[in-house]
Specification:
It comes from Wolfiporia cocos (strain MD-104) (Brown rot fungus). Keywords: Membrane, Transmembrane, Transmembrane helix. This is Non-ribosomal peptide synthetase. This protein is an alpha+beta fold. The protein has two domains: about 170 residues, no CATH class; about 200 residues, Rossmann fold (3-Layer(aba) Sandwich), CATH 3.40.50.20. It is built from 18 helices and 17 strands. Strands 5, 6, 7, 8, 9, 10, 11 and 12 form an eight-stranded antiparallel β-sheet that branches. Strands 15-14-13-16-17 form a five-stranded parallel β-sheet, with helices on both faces. It has a two-stranded antiparallel sheet with strand order 1-2. A hairpin with a 6-residue loop joins strand 9 and strand 10. The protein is elongated. The two termini are about 35 Å apart. The relative contact order is 0.13.
Length: about 500
């Protein structure tokens, strides 16, 4: 490892020259803030107190807070939100496989019995491909290039919905692959007299590995026990890939007619399951070759948030995966950047678990990340003429870049103590790049509580003449705003909780 990556004490805030304008807040005033400035040339940390003029006293008292009303939502809207595109794509992909499986086990499709391994690995191949960052970026690029703004709104909304919910195909094909693999192992067991015992042994092992991988990827595990998901879904999946290679090669090399091993490479390369497992291996390995350990600066504006600064700018609508380890416990965060040609991009990491808490309590100087970023739903904002990006709390990390880089997007943020929580850098990015008429910052502490989001969305949607609303919030906030948009007939896309 290069000496440039030697850990050193991170700066709690960024260099004022690099962030020129970040403290020039004309619409709000704040108390003095202690900032540590990092001098890269001399490699020294110098403490300095930057003072912003104290706020002037206002004669008029803020308006009295009125608690938002509770709206009744129809069962039809709740059903639409539950049976979303994710579940529709899952239903299609899984149902097609189950129908084919029924033909196979009933004896009407002997091909699937004979090539059960190919049916299994083929499904795994599709499943892994749809979670591949490179493939995903190509899909987003194709849609954004071909259908931006000119195509019918319904088509653009459908494109966004499918791209956001590709995980439905991933899950459907993965579960179907486990079922096909089980059928293949059962067939080997039934005809065990024709196979070498080692084929059956590795068939059982790969089946167990894939079943564990499947259960570790269930939404409940992923959303409530992220570290368990990371360790078991990833590492058991890699184990399953390794065992799949052995099982497929043994099955292809063993001749059931002569009861001997046919080690001819010519025979192996003519087997379809061999090429399927090669494809699956490529899709799994490819994103990992983009993994790098990079230098970062961390700003700690509060004990609730760590703002990470990375070199180079980014386009809007991307997510970055970061970790303290090269292969363990990667976490995805939205990327804030002023554009591809900017000097830096940022991640806002709210304290929610052990990983994010460690960023505040023990800030690293370097971190592992994938240089190839993951496209998020905001990346399709290019499809729309005008839109609204609403977020709560640290969700601003996934929303801000869209409004910074496009003058046709309106920002709504709902939270508490925006400047105190996120610090001068994020506040400066907002005030420097977004005109006052293009954002609404609702400080629940100043205003006495949360707003009537349904009313706000309805009024801004019509006054801004928006085509779509993108939502980033916690589970409760996301559900509330999705229901409000559906009730008002506003096209919307929210945070995923079922992937």
């Amino acid at each position: 490892m290069s000496s440039e990556l030697t850990p050193r004490v991170p700066a709690p805030a960024y260099d004022s020259d690099a962030e020129k304008g970040a403290l020039d807040l004309q619409v709000r005033s704040v108390p003095p803030v202690e900032v540590a400035l990092h001098d890269e040339k001399q490699d020294l940390i110098k403490a300095q107190v930057l003072t912003v003029p104290a706020p002037e006293k206002k004669e008029a008292a803020p308006p009295a807070y009125t608690k938002p009303p509770k709206y009744k939502v129809s069962k039809w809207i709740l059903w639409q939100l539950w049976y979303n595109t994710y579940r529709k794509l899952f239903t299609i992909s899984f149902s097609v496989n189950i129908i084919l499986f029924g033909f196979a086990v009933s004896g009407h499709w002997p091909y699937a019995i004979k090539y059960g391994g190919a049916m299994a690995v083929g499904n795994f191949n599709v499943s892994v491909l749809l979670r591949n960052e490179i493939f995903g970026r190509f899909l987003y690029l194709f849609v954004n290039t071909c259908f931006a703004k000119w195509s019918p709104l319904k088509w653009r909304l459908a494109c966004t919905s499918v791209l956001q919910h590709l995980g439905g195909i991933h899950t459907g094909c993965a579960i179907a692959g486990v079922i096909w693999l089980t059928l293949r192992v059962v067939d080997v067991f039934v005809h065990h007299a024709e196979y070498n015992n080692s084929v059956l042994v590795f068939g059982v092992l790969v089946n167990v590995a894939m079943v564990v991988t499947m259960f570790a990827g269930f939404p409940w595990v992923r959303n409530t026990h992220h570290n368990v998901f990371e360790r078991w879904h990833r590492f058991m999946g890699w184990t399953g890939l390794f065992l799949s290679w052995i099982f497929i090669l043994m099955g292809d090399l063993y001749d059931t007619d002569t009861r001997r091993w046919n080690v001819s490479g010519y025979h192996v390369v003519h087997q379809q399951d061999f090429w399927y497992v090669i494809g699956m291996t490529v899709w799994i390995v490819l994103p990992w070759i983009c993994t790098r350990r990079v230098l970062i600066d961390i700003e700690l504006p509060s004990n609730k948030v760590a703002v990470l600064r990375f070199e180079r700018g980014m386009q809007q609508g991307l997510l970055g995966r970061i970790s303290r380890s090269a292969v363990k416990e990667y976490h995805a965060f939205g990327i804030i950047s002023e554009g591809p040609h900017a000097k830096y991009h940022y991640m806002v990491c709210g304290v929610q678990g052990d990983f994010t808490r460690s960023l505040v309590n023990d800030p690293p100087r370097t971190i592992w990340t994938r240089e190839l970023k993951l496209a998020g739903v905001s990346n399709t904002s290019k499809l729309y003429k005008r839109g609204i990006r609403i977020c709560t709390g640290t969700g601003i990390g996934a929303a801000l870049a869209t409004c910074i880089q496009s003058p046709y997007w309106y920002l709504i943020w709902i939270g508490s103590d925006q400047y105190k929580t996120f610090g001068p850098t994020i506040s400066g990015l907002i005030t420097r790049n977004i005109e006052p008429e293009r954002y609404l910052l609702w400080d629940s502490k100043v205003r006495g509580g949360r707003p009537d989001t349904r009313k706000i969305l309805r009024e801004v949607y019509h006054s801004w003449k928006a085509e779509v609303v993108f939502i980033t919030s916690n589970y409760v906030g996301n559900s509330e705003m999705m229901q409000a948009c559906k009730a008002e007939g506003i096209p919307c896309f929210g945070t995923l909780w079922d992937f």
